[in-house]
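pinned: reference chain
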Amino acid sequence: MRFAIIPARPENAQILAEIAISAKRSWKYPETWIQIWIPALTISPEYISDHETWMAVVNKKPIAFYSLKQDKNDLWLDNLWVLPEFMGQGIGRQLFQHALERSRARNTMALKIESDPNAAGFYEKMGAYKTDERHSEVDDQKRIIPVMEINLLYK
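pinned: its structure tokens
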């Protein structure tokens, strides 16, 4: 599949939020959980203005995106979402490679990822490894969220 990776613009916020929500739903979580997560999955124009955000487009239509978030000491892959109908075609892999290139351009030694448990295998295939875990609860269900990292110095 041919697609381009281009910078997201604030006016893309709505479609990027739709991509994130659709991708999260593809993992068959209960709809009550999706509703709880919608605020966290919603991308605002201000978010795009404040965070480096790139999207994959086919015929000018966004089909996937990622964003980077800098905190005091670390750079995080804050989002990486692919529309379900485009999953399994290498788009996520290419977006992740692009994110690594952008992270290296910032002279960052490592990129950190708080991964959905369903995505941990993908990140492991990309070379990330688990460094920690976060414990959370959704709708009275305990969840363990892997925190991963990929070293940018040797890749």
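why pinned: The domain at 4-151 is CATH 3.40.630.30 (Aminopeptidase). The mean pLDDT is 96.
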